[in-house]
Amino acid sequence: MEDPICPLCGRPIPGEARQSLHHLIPKLKGGKGGPVVLLHHICHLEIHATLTEAELAAQYNSVEALRGHPRLAKFIAWVRKRPPGFHSKVPGRRRKR
Q1: Phi, psi (degrees; rounded to nearest 5) at 8
Q2: Taking Cα atoms as reference points, which of 82, 72, 88 lies closest to residue 18?
Q3: I need a labelling partner for 91 at 20 to 30 A (CA). Which of 13, 71, 72, 77 fits?
Q4: pTM for the full model?
Q5: Burial, 3: exposed, middle or buried (Cβ in 10 Å; 0-12, 13-18, 19+)?
Q6: Residue 6 carries which DSSP code?
Q7: What is the distance in angstroms between the CA of the first residue and the CA of the last residue of the chain?
């Protein structure tokens, strides 16, 4: 069976890689039970380090919108050069909810 593909960075997600589910509409903003996508954990961390829950709910509630954010686009260009199982800490503090 083939590894799933991360919809944010486009790299495969091997079984041993850190991975997590991202609610396209944050649970705190009414997204409980809503659509989720499987991401590399590092991609998920970068989303939450970049955007607030309110921004995610209002403007960045699709993969296409997330890819269009300037900081995330820069991150995607960087992480695509890394192996599929790559993980590191995300610099900076997490944004407020």
Answers
A1: -80, -55
A2: 88
A3: 13
A4: 0.89
A5: middle
A6: P
A7: 37
- DSSP for 11-48 reads -B--TTS-EEEEESS-GGGTTTTS-EEEEEHHHHHHHH
pLDDT 10s per residue in the chain (97 long)? 899 999 999 999 999 999 999 999 999 999 999 999 999 999 999 999 999 999 999 999 999 999 999 999 999 999 999 999 998 876 555 555 5
Ranges of each domain in the chain: 19-79
Classify each residue of 28-38 as buried b or exposed e, where b means 16 or more C-beta atoms within 10 Å of its C-beta.
ebebeeeeebe
Q: Give the span between the Cα atoms of 83 and 70, in whole angstroms.
A: 23
Label the pairing between strands 36-40 and 19-23: antiparallel
Q: Which amino acid is at 41?
A: H
- Residue 62 burial (10 A CB sphere; 0-12, 13-18, 19+): middle
